[in-house]
Each structure stands twice: as structure tokens, then as C-alpha cells.
């Protein structure tokens, strides 16, 4: 019984104009779904396009960017007319915790006044009611409501990250996009923040996309994951399926490159580095670094194939699998 | 060893090409290239400055008349023979203007150089060593900052005479302080960079750290600042000379303006004796400022605020994708 | 087999404190002179061919320890012995030859290299500083050897490049090559891979591992327990300036004896989504190292705290449930000693 996704993208592309006159094809045909109350992990290394993807979901791209494709929020295409159709939804329906958000607070304003700001801007609350809501929000994220009148420098790093989450929840959105929310934090504080995010999705019915390069974090916290490489989603599916039956060599090699605390396997690096995205790529973008590349990989771009229900990958190795399954 | 440098695609051995290396190249040529690219004002400014330098260098070839001989009437209006008329001595204004370029630019460049050398040295020493050296040098800088320019110039003119070299030095002395402060701040920040610390941990001495690591890093800023100082120096020279404190044996734009006032040009409606030198000064200052500002912008991308403008990404239709259905 | 001369590095009772600046107002108001107790009595050793990992969260003192050992920062008490010789109080001039033997690798590969130096310049610099390799040709050979030893083969491809033309991993290898060119005996690596992509980290860590196999001693500072567990021979867990647990890496990670270590390990996410342990999340955050708690530093957050923990400052002893003698913890409950 499938539930309607709260957020769905269809063939999303983003290009950036470069000084050289060329274009950087940062996001190449991303199609993903986010179900209500779900935590979806968007994983990849630097330059893979994951941050650009979620910025595109909110229309937070600069004038050098051009976007194609559709983004459906509760069935409505919010990118239909660009900025015009996206801005009413910003913060009200879909909001974001940015990378390094804990350092992005205005140091001369109290935390409380900064959380009230979006409420007043979007007209969701004002005055006393807004301030009361701010205190509630702070309590919700684990900060004592009295601290609303304190300044950012009086908060520790972990607390500021919580405040950043409270800020993102100010207008009660349906979807929360979290970009590397725990990257700069100690492992214990990371655990606290991740626990908070899990609690919020459970108790508030919030849906979340968690962007990170840290695979174990995704393994611990997310229901489903999408692995990105060179602007594309190369594999997407349930968390345990991704780990136990990876259908793309990059996913498998990425796990193999991550040391596990108790595991004894050798840790292997992936030779080479990602392709430049300002040139057209022929064949599979991962082929030069892949340990399983074979004849079609250099010439034909793989097709998106569903190898089992809910589990898809972009790899020629699956061509045979799917063909056999349907035979 | 012949060959051309291998292109990035060759770096396959351990890791492939530097991924999305779209960073600005900080190499030696980098500053000028980055400055000029995408900043038309820098190109215009540079062109104008070069034009004036050429005028100064080739003055004897460009000036139609001698500036030492009376070639026309007093305050003759501009005509085909005298493009900018004549001054109160019957000398061709245009030729005067052309020759005046020499001294004005000479003083401007030389004084800026003096400011650069003193300011740069003080800034580097102060910023690098810190401690009491920094305190002492900064207090000296403050003293120089506080001394009022005009009385200082008058005193120097009175005591040391109104020679060109004195003017150059005094202008340099007036302007080195802001350079020193700027460089000191930059040096303090460079000193904390990891590669400097790493060099120190290898055992590099102060000399090497300063000359090989710190100075090259602050040099572009110093040059940008010096270009801006040239503008200021040209102006100050004009100002000094106009007040009668300049070297009487040289012709500069300031001298021309001074002469025009002494010769009552305004009363004689001889605008051509007053306006052109002023315009020339303005153009040169503007040009230097344009180049200097562009260089500073190129050096510090954070100064640019264009990205803060309202985000207006563009939507575009999907072109037919070839493969994935 | 391990006499003092064999051990490369021996640190005992190291204490490093930084003054907290008061400013003029503070001085006039006679505010007490506060100090950051960065390192408060740390002792450990590193032998040749051994990788020791100092692990902990921010503020635990691991970086300060590394910088003190590399003599970049002054310490207030304790001894640092390198190959049997006390180096803690040597003047900068006397230290110079030592700087060949102890080299430091920094966290940020994007900042470790002078952007105006070519790879050759960077790797050659240590040779010039120490006056090694008289002819240019000799230096060139050494530079190439160091580059290849650091995995940048063929050296020709990299030697004339500028840092901005290289990826993070390549830059880090250049920094490592610049350290190797002097043939050091001890490497101090401060978070050598934390700023690199995951797929690249293993390569650098394997490089360090192979250097270790060649006989180099490596002191690695990291906040990543998983990395330490995989690559280090021994782990020392630090908290608020002290080592609270130490022992063979796999032992410490599989059988942690200090409550802090146990909490840390329970909280580290595992790769396998099905194998996530129930995290034992400690409340609050590490207190700042200016005002230290009394008794055991960890007691305010300890899930096993007893009354006597507030007054007794524990020392490292073999824990009751340790499987080897070298596995020690500083806890009066689990390692009464």
C-alpha cells in the first residue's frame, strides 16, 4: 500500500554558468521521492551535487544557475514558474538546516529574535504568540525556553545547531532538509542531534532529507538512502538493502572505504577522482574508477533499473539481472 | 627536458585530475589575469594609465611647440595652431600639458614607491614579529598619522627647500602609514596560515619565512595598494605645487594651475589655462583608482557583494535526453 | 626488548596550560588569572614501527599534546624524551637537528601548502633549510624519491604543479612527502584525513601504515574512533586533558573499560544498518577546560558515578575486566588498581 510522497522530484537538472563560458552540469536528472514521516539520506562525496540538489528544492540558487525538471510538493509543481512559485513555500512547507548553520547566527541579536523573524516574515505568528511559540520550539529541540533571550556566543556548538533546527521549524514545515547537520560536531553531540532529528520526524510527522558524506550516520538514522555520484543518483533504496545488496559498485566501494568500528575488513580507497562536470560525459561516469567495468560502460550511459521493489540503480551490471528477472 | 606539461587528464596514477578545480589560480600571473578578466573598468583604467605613461615618455615627440619659447599671444584662445591656447607667457598650453605629464607622473610613481617601501617594510616587520616591536612601530606609525599634512609640507619646504626630491619624499612619508597598517593586518593573518607553521616546524628561520612565504603572499595586496597610492600622490603633488610649495624649476599640472591663478587666467576668461590640467589630474586619479580597486576586488572575492542580490535562478525546459527513459 | 633507547618517544606527566587573556579591564578589575588546562599530566610512549592514536573529542587536549611533543608549544611540566634524550627544554637552536627527526602532518591539506610554491619547492624546502643535498641534482633526486614514497608516481607528473591543481588527497601526499624528505623517525599526524573525502582517506591511511611497517613511529591524533581502531596499534582515549583509557587498539574498542569510552563507542554509528547499538548518549557537553570538575573529571556526566568519584582523581590501572596488562583505565569503579 503505497502512500503519496510528500515531496517528489522528476528529472531535476541544475546547470551553473562558468567564467570560462561553459556550463557545469551539477545535477543530472535527479528523481527521488520522500514519503511522509520518512528520513531519506542523500549521500555522496564532495562535488557530487547533493547540496545543490536540496538547494534547488527550495529555489535557493544564484542567478548563475538554471534549473530544469519538476519538484512536486504535495502534488503541486513548485518550480513551475521558478522563484514565483517556490517562494510561498519556503519555510512554510519546506525548510532547511544549512551546512555550518550553527555559525550563521547573527551575533548581535538574541537567538529568540532570530527564530521569531521567519514567523513574522511569513505571517504565521507575531508578538506575544510568536515569542511563546519560540519558547516551545526551543524546548522541543532540547534547549530551555528561558534561553531565548541569550546571544549566540552564549551557546555551545551543539546547542547552536539545535537552535538552527528550531529556526528551520519556525513555520511548521512538512519537509526538513538537513545539510551535513553533524559534520562539525563531536561524536557525542552528533548522537544527540541525530536523536533529536529522529524524534522530530516521529513525533511531528516531519519528513526529512539528510545530506551527508558520512555513510554510517545514514545507516544509523535513515530509512532509505540515495547515493549520488557526478550529479546523478546511482543507487537508491532501503538502508539495509543498500548495505547488504548494493547494486552499484560505487556504493559497495564507498562502504568498503569506510572503516567500521568493530569490523576487521581492510579499508580500501577508490583510485582516481570524480569526473569534471563541465564536459559531457560519455558512458558511465564512474567507469574510469570502477573495479567491475566491462564493455558497455565506456560507451553507453547506464539506464535506471529497478532491481527489486523500491531498489534502483544506474549500472550496466544490472542489465542482465533485470533481463533475467523479466524473462 | 622538453615536453609540455601533462594535461590534468594524465594525472591518473594515484588519484585522477583534481576534481572540480574551479578555484582561482593564485600563481604569479594570476593577479593581473584575474583582475582584468570580467572587470572592464580595470581594462579601461589600465589603458588610460598606459596612455599617460606613453605621453610622458614620448613628450618631445607629441608636444607641437617648445615650452620654453613664446609661440603665441598671451592667453590666446584655442585654435588650430594652439589646441589648448596659450598661457600668460604665450607658451602653448597643450605642450605644457604634455610635458607636465612627466613630472606629475614621476612624482606620483616615485612617491608611491617610497610609501610602498617604507609602509611595506614596517607592516611586514610589525606584523610578523609582533610583541614590543609591533607596539613600537605602531606607535611611530600613529605619530606620523597624526602629523597634519599641510604644516609638515610647509615646514619641509621652508627648511629643506622646494626640490622635487623633497616633495617625493614628503609625499611618501605622508602616505606610508595606511599601507603599513594594511600590510600588517595581512601579515598577521598569513603568519597564522598552516603552511607557515609547517615551514617553521621544519626548522625554517625567520628570514626564510618572511621572504619566501609571507612577502610573496602580501605582495599583490601591496601592489594594489600602491596603485591606489599613486592616485593619491598625484593629487597631493598637484595640491602642493598649486599652493606654491612645489619645485619652481619644474613643470607639472599643479604648476600649471598655480601659474594660471598667478596669471589671473580667470579674469582673462582663459579657461584653457585652468581647466585642462585639472581634468588631466582627475583622469589619471580616476584611472589609477579603477585599476587599484579592481585589483583589490580580485584579491578579496569576499568584498564582492553581488551574490547577496536577490536570487533569481532561471527555469529552462528539458532538452530531449538521449538515453534514460 | 623495549629499553629506553628503543622507544622513540616517551612522554611523562606532560602539562600544558594556556592563559586566558584578561584584557585591560580584566586586569584592572583583578579578575583571577584563568588558564585553559589543555594537557594535565599525560604519559605515553611510541616505539619504532608503532602507530599510537590519541583519540578524543574537541577540548580533550589531544592536539595540544601533539603540538607540545613537536615542540611547537611550551609545556609547564613533565618530560619529553626522544630516543632516550630529554628534548623538553632545548633551545630552538638545539632543537633544529631534531626537527629532521620529528615531523608533523597537519589536518588541512588545503592550507598546508604555500599556494605560490610548486610541489618541487615545497618538498625541497626542508632540504634547503637543513643544508642537505649539495648539488641541485642531488636534491632533485631526493625530492622525487620522497614523492614516490608518498605515492605520487611518477613524480614527473606532479613535481611542477601548483597546489591548486591538485586534489585534497594529492596535496596531503605532498605534505607527507615534504616530511619524508628528511627521513624522519617519528611522524606526528594531526587529523591527517578528516578533511578528505571518504574514498581518499583509506589511501592516505594505508600510506601511513606502510611507513609504519618500514619502521617509522607515528603518533596520530584523531576524533574518529573507527579510523583509530583500524590503523593504530594502541589507542589512548583523552578527556579534559587526561588519558582515561589506553591499551591495544582492538582491545580498547571491543572491551572498553572506562565509562566515557563505553559511551563513545556506543554512540559511533556503524556501517551496517542492522547492527546499530543502542547509543548511550551522555547529557550535556564536555565542560570547558578552564574550570575543571573536582575529583574525577568525568563524574558530572558519568552514568556509573558514585559518591567517592567526586573527591578521588583516579589514576590509570589495569581494569578488572581487561584481558591484557597494558589495557588500563582511570576509573575507581572499573579499575580500582
Please give a quick description of this structure.
Chain B is mainly α and 325 residues long. Chain B is 64% helix and 1% strand. Helices cover 29% and strands 20% of the residues of chain C.
What would you say this structure looks like, in words?
The complex is a heterotrimer of chains A (327), B (325) and C (337). With 327 residues, chain A is of the alpha/beta class. Helices cover 30% and strands 23% of the residues of chain A. In chain A, a hairpin with a 2-residue loop joins β10 and β11. In chain A, α3 packs across α4 and α3 (111-122) runs parallel beside α5 (157-168). Chain B contains 11 helices and 1 strand; from the N terminus they run αααααααααααβ. Chain B is globular, with a radius of gyration of 26 Å. In chain B, α5 runs antiparallel to α7, α9 packs antiparallel against α11 and α10 (253-262) runs antiparallel to α11. Chain C has 11 helices and 12 strands. Chain C has an 8-stranded mixed β-sheet, sandwiched between helices. In chain C, strands 2-1-4-5 form a 4-stranded antiparallel β-sheet, with helices on one face. β5 (65-73) of chain A pairs parallel with β1 of chain B.
List the helices and strands and how they pair.
The complex is a heterotrimer of chains A (327), B (325) and C (337).
Chain A: E1 7-17, E2 23-30, E3 33-34, E4 39-43, H1 50-57, E5 65-73, E6 76-77, H2 83-86, E7 94-97, H3 111-122, H4 127-140, H5 157-168, E8 175-179, H6 187-204, E9 207-212, H7 215-221, E10 224-229, E11 232-238, H8 239-244, H9 249-256, E12 304-308, E13 311-314, H10 317-326
Parallel strand pairs in A: 4-9, 4-10, 7-8, 8-9
Antiparallel strand pairs in A: 1-2, 1-3, 1-5, 5-6, 10-11, 11-13, 12-13
Helix pairs in contact in A: 3-4, 3-5, 4-5
Chain B: H1 30-36, H2 40-57, H3 59-62, H4 93-129, H5 131-146, H6 149-160, H7 164-191, H8 194-202, H9 206-242, H10 253-262, H11 271-299, E1 314-315
Helix pairs in contact in B: 1-11, 2-4, 2-11, 4-5, 4-7, 4-9, 4-10, 4-11, 5-7, 6-7, 7-9, 8-9, 9-10, 9-11, 10-11
Chain C: E1 9-19, H1 23-28, E2 35-46, E3 51-55, H2 62-69, E4 77-82, E5 85-86, H3 92-95, E6 102-105, H4 119-130, H5 136-149, H6 156-159, H7 168-180, E7 186-190, H8 198-213, E8 217-222, H9 225-231, E9 234-239, E10 242-248, H10 249-254, H11 259-267, E11 317-318, E12 328-329
Parallel strand pairs in C: 3-8, 3-9, 6-7, 7-8
Antiparallel strand pairs in C: 1-2, 1-4, 4-5, 9-10, 10-12, 11-12
Helix pairs in contact in C: 4-5, 4-7, 5-7
Amino acid at each position: 500500500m503505497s502512500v503519496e510522497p510528500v515531496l517528489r522530484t522528476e528529472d531535476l537538472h541544475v546547470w551553473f554558468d562558468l567564467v570560462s563560458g561553459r556550463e557545469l552540469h551539477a545535477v543530472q536528472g535527479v528523481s527521488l521521492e520522500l514519503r511522509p514521516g520518512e528520513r531519506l539520506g542523500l549521500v555522496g562525496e564532495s562535488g557530487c551535487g547533493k547540496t545543490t540538489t536540496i538547494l534547488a528544492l527550495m529555489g535557493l540558487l544564484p542567478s548563475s544557475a538554471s534549473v530544469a525538471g519538476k519538484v512536486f510538493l504535495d502534488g503541486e509543481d513548485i518550480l513551475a514558474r521558478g522563484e514565483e512559485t517556490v517562494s510561498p513555500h519556503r519555510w512554510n512547507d519546506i525548510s532547511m538546516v544549512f551546512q555550518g548553520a550553527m555559525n550563521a547566527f547573527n551575533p548581535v541579536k538574541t537567538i529568540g529574535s532570530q527564530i521569531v523573524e521567519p514567523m513574522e516574515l511569513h505571517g504565521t505568528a507575531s508578538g506575544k504568540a510568536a515569542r511563546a511559540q519560540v519558547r516551545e520550539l526551543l524546548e522541543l529541540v532540547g534547549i530551555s525556553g528561558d534561553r531565548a533571550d541569550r546571544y549566540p556566543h552564549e551557546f555551545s556548538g551543539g546547542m547552536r545547531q539545535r537552535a538552527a533546527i528550531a529556526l528551520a521549524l519556525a513555520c511548521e514545515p512538512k519537509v526538513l532538509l538537513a545539510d551535513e547537520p553533524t559534520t562539525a560536531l563531536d561524536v557525542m553531540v552528533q548522537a544527540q542531534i541525530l536523536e533529536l532529528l529522529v524524534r522530530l520526524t516521529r513525533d511531528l510527522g516531519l519528513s526529512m532529507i539528510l545530506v551527508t558524506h558520512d555513510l554510517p550516520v545514514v545507516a544509523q538514522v535513515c530509512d532509505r538512502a540515495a547515493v549520488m555520484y557526478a550529479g546523478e543518483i546511482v543507487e537508491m533504496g532501503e538502508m539495509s538493502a543498500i548495505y547488504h545488496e548494493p547494486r552499484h559498485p560505487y556504493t559497495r566501494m564507498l562502504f568498503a572505504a569506510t572503516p567500521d568500528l568493530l569490523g576487521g575488513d581492510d579499508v580500501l580507497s577508490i583510485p582516481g577522482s570524480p569526473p569534471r562536470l563541465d564536459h559531457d560525459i560519455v558512458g558511465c561516469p564512474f567507469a574510469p574508477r570502477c573495479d567491475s567495468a566491462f564493455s558497455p560502460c565506456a560507451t553507453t550511459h547506464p539506464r535506471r533499473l529497478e532491481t527489486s521493489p523500491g531498489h534502483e540503480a544506474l549500472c550496466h551490471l544490472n542489465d542482465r539481472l533485470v533481463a533475467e528477472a523479466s524473462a | 627536458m622538453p615536453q609540455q606539461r601533462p594535461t590534468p587528464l594524465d594525472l591518473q596514477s594515484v588519484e585522477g585530475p583534481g576534481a572540480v578545480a574551479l578555484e582561482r589560480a593564485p600563481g604569479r600571473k594570476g593577479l593581473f589575469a584575474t583582475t582584468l578578466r570580467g572587470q572592464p573598468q580595470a581594462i579601461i583604467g589600465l589603458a588610460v594609465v598606459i596612455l599617460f605613461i606613453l605621453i610622458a615618455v614620448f613628450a618631445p615627440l607629441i608636444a607641437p611647440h617648445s615650452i620654453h619659447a613664446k609661440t603665441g599671444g598671451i592667453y590666446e584662445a584655442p585654435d588650430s595652431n594652439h589646441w589648448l591656447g596659450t598661457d600668460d607667457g604665450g607658451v602653448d598650453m597643450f605642450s605644457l600639458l604634455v610635458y607636465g605629464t612627466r613630472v606629475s607622473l614621476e612624482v606620483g610613481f616615485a612617491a608611491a614607491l617610497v610609501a610602498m617601501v617604507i609602509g611595506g617594510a614596517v607592516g611586514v616587520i610589525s606584523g610578523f614579529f609582533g610583541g614590543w616591536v609591533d607596539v613600537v612601530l605602531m606607535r611611530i606609525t600613529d605619530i606620523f598619522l597624526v602629523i597634519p599634512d599641510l604644516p609638515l609640507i610647509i615646514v619641509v619646504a621652508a627648511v629643506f627647500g622646494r626640490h622635487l626630491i623633497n616633495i617625493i619624499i614628503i609625499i611618501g612619508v605622508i602616505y606610508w602609514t595606511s599601507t603599513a597598517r594594511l600590510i600588517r593586518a595581512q601579515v598577521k593573518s598569513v603568519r597564522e596560515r598552516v603552511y607557515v607553521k609547517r615551514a617553521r616546524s621544519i626548522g625554517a628561520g625567520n628570514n626564510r619565512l618572511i621572504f619566501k612565504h609571507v612577502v610573496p603572499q602580501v605582495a599583490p595586496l601591496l601592489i594594489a595598494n600602491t596603485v591606489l597610492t599613486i592616485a593619491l600622490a598625484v593629487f597631493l603633488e598637484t595640491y602642493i605645487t598649486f599652493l606654491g610649495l612645489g619645485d619652481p624649476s619644474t613643470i607639472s599640472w599643479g604648476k600649471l594651475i598655480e601659474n594660471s591663478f598667478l596669471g589671473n587666467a580667470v579674469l582673462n576668461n582663459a579657461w584653457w589655462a585652468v581647466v585642462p590640467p585639472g581634468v588631466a589630474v582627475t583622469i589619471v586619479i580616476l584611472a589609477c583608482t579603477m585599476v587599484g580597486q579592481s585589483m583589490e576586488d580580485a584579491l578579496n572575492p569576499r568584498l564582492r557583494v553581488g551574490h547577496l542580490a536577490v536570487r533569481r535562478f532561471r527555469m529552462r525546459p528539458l532538452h530531449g535526453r538521449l538515453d534514460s527513459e | 626488548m623495549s629499553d629506553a633507547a628503543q622507544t622513540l618517544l616517551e612522554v611523562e606527566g606532560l602539562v600544558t596550560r594556556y592563559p586566558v587573556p584578561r584584557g585591560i579591564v580584566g586586569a584592572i578589575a583583578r579578575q583571577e588569572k584563568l588558564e585553559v588546562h589543555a594537557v594535565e599530566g599525560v604519559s605515553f610512549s611510541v616505539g619504532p614501527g608503532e602507530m599510537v592514536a590519541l583519540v578524543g573529542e574537541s577540548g580533550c587536549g589531544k592536539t595540544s599534546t601533539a603540538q607540545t611533543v613537536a615542540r611547537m608549544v611550551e609545556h609547564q611540566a613533565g618530560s619529553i624524551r626522544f630516543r632516550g634524550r630529554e628534548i623538553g627544554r632545548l633551545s630552538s637552536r638545539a632543537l633544529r637537528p631534531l626537527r629532521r627527526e620529528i615531523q608533523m602532518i597537519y589536518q588541512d591539506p588545503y592550507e598546508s601548502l604555500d599556494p605560490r610554491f610548486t610541489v618541487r619547492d615545497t618538498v625541497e624546502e626542508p632540504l634547503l633549510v637543513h643544508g642537505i643535498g649539495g648539488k641541485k641534482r642531488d636534491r632533485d633526486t631526493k625530492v622525487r624519491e620522497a614523492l614516490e614514497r608518498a605515492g605520487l608516481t611518477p613524480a614527473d607528473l606532479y613535481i611542477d604543479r601548483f597546489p591548486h591543481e591538485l586534489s585534497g588527497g594529492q596535496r596531503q601526499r605532498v605534505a607527507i612527502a615534504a616530511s619524508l624528505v628528511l627521513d624522519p623517525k617519528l611522524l606526528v599526524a594531526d587529523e591527517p584525513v578528516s578533511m578528505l573525502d571518504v574514498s581518499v582517506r583509506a589511501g592516505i591511511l594505508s600510506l601511513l601504515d606502510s611507513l609504519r611497517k618500514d619502521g617509522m613511529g607515528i603518533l596520530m591524533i584523531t576524533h574518529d574512533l573507527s579510523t583509530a581502531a583500524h590503523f593504530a596499534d594502541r589507542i589512548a582515549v583523552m578527556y579534559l586533558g587526561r588519558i582515561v583509557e589506553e591499551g591495544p587498539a582492538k582491545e580498547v574498542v571491543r572491551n572498553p573499560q572506562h565509562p566515557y569510552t563505553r559511551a563513545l563507542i556506543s554512540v559511533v554509528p556503524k556501517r551496517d544498518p542492522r547492527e546499530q547499538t543502542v547509543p548511550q548518549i551522555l547529557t550535556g557537553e564536555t565542560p570547558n577546560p578552564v574550570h575543571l570538575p573536582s575529583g574525577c573529571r568525568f563524574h558530572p556526566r558519568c552514568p556509573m558515578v558514585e559518591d567517592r568519584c567526586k573527591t578521588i582523581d583516579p589514576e590509570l590501572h589495569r581494569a578488572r575486566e581487561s584481558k591484557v596488562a597494558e589495557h588500563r583505565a582511570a576509573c575507581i569503579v572499573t579499575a580500582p588498581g
